[in-house]
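Quick log. Single chain, no ligands specified.
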Amino acid sequence: MKAPDGKVKAQSPGKRAKQFLIIALLVLGALTLVAVAASAYLRSCLFPADYREMVKEIAGDNDIDPLMVAAVIFAESNFDEHAISRKDARGLMQILPETASEIAGKLGKKAFSVNELFDPETNIEFGCFYIAGLVEEFAQDHRLAIAAYNGGQTNVRRWLDESGKEGFAAVEECGFDQTRRYVKKVMIAWRVLRVINSMRKF
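-> predicted structure:
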């Protein structure tokens, strides 16, 4: 702004501070919108809306974190309920037919058919039951439970014996490369979901 004599008039410190505050608030608002949009996108990838209530209810019935279950499903099938692996693992949580038959027996489902593994509710029910058992078996060590879900309980116990180490350190030393990568993928997805969940409730 110019004064009547043609010279540029300096802004007062108070006015400059007010302008800086407005700019800072605008930038903060824009960053908040970006963060919200990014969290919504990540949430839709890692935990699609179609499965949230079902996973929350079934995981709750089994006393396990639904966000962990979502992370496992993301790693196993990327939420493809029709997925089939080369080893014939099926559905959202990639459950093998023989494992499913054992679970069905424990749950008292006498008329179970392996094709039911393509039903999201049945698959999640079986997967949550199995994970809950693993979490209990490995004394609430979730990384070991996740390793066992991927690499098998017998293998995880063997790795613990062979390494002489406790916890995931045994898997790091003796476990399959694929299992180590799998556990890390699940843990990262679970951690991201927990961060998002702290920002906005699922």
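The radius of gyration is 25 Å.
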